[in-house]
Amino acid sequence: MTKAAKPNIPPYLLWEYDLNTFNYDKSYKIFIERVLQMGKIEDWKEIIRYYPIEKTFETNEWSAQIAKSDMLYVS
């Protein structure tokens, strides 16, 4: 199975990282958290395109950074 192309997201979501070298597989929790916190619906769609939906739900439940209201919305 071929891995999907890197997520197409606005650079401001991960402003402190170099997106040319950012490892979306190893750092998935950082990426998913940031998009769920500050992303738009198009960015959320990029999460689902790139990761299995279960990984997004797992990160949503695990995160201490995501507001409860956002967690409920994602669920």
Globally, the shape reads globular
Structural class call reads: mainly alpha
What's the gyration radius in Å? 12 Å
Q: Describe the main β-sheet briefly.
A: none
Strand content: under 5%
Number of DSSP helices? 4
Helix and strand pattern: HHHH
Percent of residues in helices comes to: 40-55%
Count of individual beta strands: 0
The residue-averaged pLDDT reads 84
Q: Which parts are unreliable, with pLDDT below 50 for 5 consecutive residues or more?
A: none
**First-to-last CA distance:** 28 Å
Q: Which features does this protein show?
A:
single chain; about 80 residues; mainly alpha; 4 helices; globular
Short description:
With 75 residues, this protein is mainly alpha-helical.
How is the topology of this model organized?
Layout (H helix, E strand, L loop, with lengths): L27 H11 L2 H10 L2 H10 L5 H7 L1
Notes on the structure:
It is a single chain. The chain has 75 residues and is mostly helical. The chain is built from four helices and no strands. The protein has helices spanning 28-38, 41-50, 53-62, 68-74. The N and C termini lie far apart (28 Å).
